Amino acid sequence: MKLNKKVAAGLAAGAVVVAGSGVAYAYWTTTGSGSGNSTSSATPASVTYHASFDAATLAPGTSVSVAYSASNASPTILQVAAPTATFSSNKTVDGLAMAANKSNSCAQYLSLSAQPTGGQVPAHTAAGDGSVSLGSATLSFDDSTTDNQNLCQGQTVTISLSN
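-> structure tokens emitted (163 positions)
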């Protein structure tokens, strides 16, 4: 029986140790709240407009095709409104007898058949992407039967696209 009392005493001591370790368990409780904010880019990315054409064969009475497009260098898809196409020439026809309603620029003989359209410009994420066609037009050089257009030879024609 003495053996049983020793076993019982050992078990009781072990139970106190187990119970004691359970009493040592502690935790904290708390409450809280929070928020965060950030401001996005104040200025959106922009696109670059292009008007591609070959004016090397442009002469009185001829026309060339114009391809309008937009490219996007940002990683975001951008929606653009239809830009306005205007054209100019670096040559003038000063000193020649011009009709009363004519200016002295060779641009007076030029005309575009269509304006570019708007559209969604894809994001640029890899080489070769991020561009969209905005339509096409025909650039014509009118032939005048009354004005000497020789001074318009070698003119540089610029088509500008802007919103």
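DSSP finds one helix and eight strands in the chain.
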